[in-house]
Amino acid sequence: MSSRNVTHPFYLCNEVTPLCPVQATTLGYYPNRGINYFFAIGFGLAAAVTFVTGVWKKTWSYMAFITAGCMLELAGYAARVPLGSNPWNKDAFETQICAIILAPTLVCISIYLTLKHISLSINPELSRIRPRLYPWLFVPLDVSCLLVQAIGGAIAASAGYTDQAMLQHGNRAIIAGITLQVFVLLFFGTIAVDYYVRVKRWIKSGEAGAEAVGLWRDKKFRMFVYAVTGAYSGILIRCVYRIAEMAGGWGNKIMQDQPSFIVLEGFMVLIPCWLLACFPPGVLFPQMAARMSTRTKKERRADDKAGGQATPSRGGNDSSDPEQAASTPEPKGQ
Question: Deepest in the core among 87, 197, 218, 308, taking most CB within 10 A?
């Protein structure tokens, strides 16, 4: 037998028995069914709230990515429910590991989109990167993280227990994808903090117009920014945890610690999803909602001719923006 194809001693296990103890499973424990029902319902409700508000206020792309992420989380925690009675359920394990690992990446895309609209609404010139380029920069990076993690999950799932070398390759790919996501999040955070500092100085200088100052001091706008900041922080903590969890290989001590998974994975994603659902831009940041609403082709062509740039009072939205990929067909806009 080659060194690549080593049969795992528990390869034939499909339920917990004296010869197939729960301690020998990858998780090493019976997942708590109550908490998994809680997470599944929580993510389902967050998806519903986000979807309804997004359709109501026409924040199409923002709504689509958060809803998709919440639905993936729902699928992942629903798959953990049967693991509560049989941790050897391979189909349920593979479903939950893939869905729960990939879902936050989709939620991150919506977070990345907010900086573009904040910059366009306050002062585009203070951004070190042209605001219309933010989606082109961060969406491909985030999708790359998603693809690397998906490839790693597929490799690990196909390896099963028979090909330990292939299993490790899948594990390394997942770690690489999550690590890349942490770097992208930190890069985004650095740019966001830099823009915040520059705007704050601009506001204090007295050079800012009344409209920009009004938005900067608006309580609803600040609530939206605080919610996005909280969501960003929670997902960043979750990603750092996932690196530590996966670094020790399948079935390591961190992976087999259920309380840390519940807090640092479950709640660190559920809370951000609910923050984004309960503090939507359509209600708290209408400038973003108006810009994201589908508009007529004539209006989009006008923006294209203007170079995709915007004044602080009304931002532009060019038709080639990646955000439009998640839009619905083009009814007459506002």
Answer: 87
8 belongs to a structural domain = no
The confidence band for 158, taking pLDDT boundaries of 50, 70 and 90, is confident
- Pull the structure tokens for residue 214: 């009004």
Domains in the chain, number: 1
- Both tokens of 266, joined, read 């479950």
* Residue of 31, 158, 34 whose CA lies nearest to 89: 31
C-alpha–C-alpha distance, residues 100 and 108, integer Å: 14
Residue 204, token pair as written in the block: 């204090």
pLDDT tier for residue 160 given thresholds of 50, 70 and 90: low
Does any domain span residue 1? no
CB 61 within 8 A of CB 326: yes
Residue-wise pLDDT for 77-87, tens only, equals 999 999 999 99
Contact 134, 115 (CB under 8 A): yes
The more confident residue out of 96 and 303 is 96
Among 42-51, 194-203, 250-259, 299-308, the least confident range? 299-308
Q: What is the DSSP string of 10-32?
A: TTT--S-BTTB-GGGSSS-S---
Model pLDDT, residue 322: 60
Q: State how far the Cα of 65 lies from the Cα of 132, in Å rounded to an integer.
A: 19
For 24-59, give one letter per residue: b (16+ CB within 10 A) or e: bbbbbbebbeebbeebbebbbebbebbbebbeebbb
- b/e code 182-209 from CB counts within 10 Å (16+ = b): bebbeebeebbeebbebbeebbeeeebe
Whether residue 129 is contained in a domain is answered as yes
Which residue segment(s) compose the domain that 55 sits in? Answer: 31-297+305-324
Query: CATH number of the domain that 151 lies in?
Result: 1.20.1070
Full-model pTM = 0.84
Q: Output the average pLDDT for the chain.
A: 85
